[in-house]
Amino acid sequence: MAAENNLWGIHAGKTGDASSLFTKQDCVAVGWVEMGDLSQIAPDRDAFKQKVAQVYSNIKPGAIPNYAGQLFRFLHEMQVGDLVAYPDKFERKIYLGEVTGPYVYDPKKSLDYPNIRPVKWLGSFPRTQFSQGALYEVGSAMSFFQVKNFADEFRAALEGKPAVVNPVEQDETVALVSGEIEDTTRDFILKRLSQEFKGLPLEGFVVHLFEAMGYHARQTQRNEPSVDVIAHKDHLGIEPPIIKIQVKSSEGTASDKDVSALCGKLGTGEAGVFITLGGFSSHARDQEKNRPNLRLIDGDELVDLILQHYERFDAKHKGVLPLRRVYVPESLD
Q: Which of 137, 225, 325, 327 lies 20 to 30 Å (CA to CA) from residue 48?
């Protein structure tokens, strides 16, 4: 087991359904059943790409090199003597082993994972033994991949050496993972809003958002330009402040002219709110600074409001914008 040998990471399917195959029958395997015997494909990446494109004609073109690359590496780049790391979802352990033989196509051993490499498992280790960065790397979204950044940490575990693991509060990957989850969620929300609530439907969504915030709200008649939604705290809508809201579903930049049009609709005891999925020009922001009864809400702040009041959304709006509560590490500084 030479130190220079590669370390590979592998998953047992999205639900861990190949876990028993891996740990009980001393092997690692990948699916892609429709590809058949991978050893029958010419040993170059282009041939694998062509086969993937032929077999999976409905996948996006950008996914073809990814799929083909994983299969090519599993067959031709993973060598006998290389190490393999398998994160077991059920036992919450990391299995580490050594590849002991060449590729085998054996659908009798597993119909769903017929592309197999024999492995000798050298040990299993609790996830808490490794840094968050190492766990993040072996948690790759790909089924089969090379472990590079934290390979030494896994080798140290096999050699019985204590890994140099930063305290949780000093582990930069904790903040990285948390940040990526938050960024992905925010991007998802804005994309769903732009796709599912384009135009008038976004006005209805804003009505529901303000209701979740504790207001009474309604869409205006179509003959009232620059004002799309009216919101107020009292039931009848006669007590100030009355909030007049303009809603823009475009992702461009709202100008000071757009904002001025809303301000021109505001009377005594009324406030204006301009909501857009995009942003605002600097001149538009200047108007907000000079008008205490004006609020400009861009896409980022709209997402903040959605996340803050999401639990009060009804089933219909949660269905269009499906989210679930997830706890992620917060900075320990």
A: 137
Partner residues linked to 128 by β-bridges: none
Rounded CA-CA distance 122/158 in Å is: 7
Answer whether 304's CB lies under 8 Å from 312's CB: no
Measured CA to CA, the distance from residue 111 to residue 18 in angstroms comes to 11
Residue 23, exposed/middle/buried by CB under 10 A (0-12, 13-18, 19+)? buried
Residue 263 pLDDT > 50:
yes
131 and 185 together in one domain: no
The count of structural domains within the chain is 2
Q: What are the pLDDT digits (tens) for 207-249?
A: 999 999 999 999 997 767 789 999 999 988 788 899 999 999 8
Q: Identify the helix (H) or strand (E) that includes residue 28.
A: strand 27-30
Three-class secondary structure of residue 20 per DSSP: helix
Q: What is the DSSP code string of 173-229?
A: HHHHHHHHHHHHHHHHHHHHHHHHSTTHHHHHHHHHHHHHTT-EEEEPPTTSTT--E
**What CA–CA distance (Å, rounded) separates 101 from 267?**
80
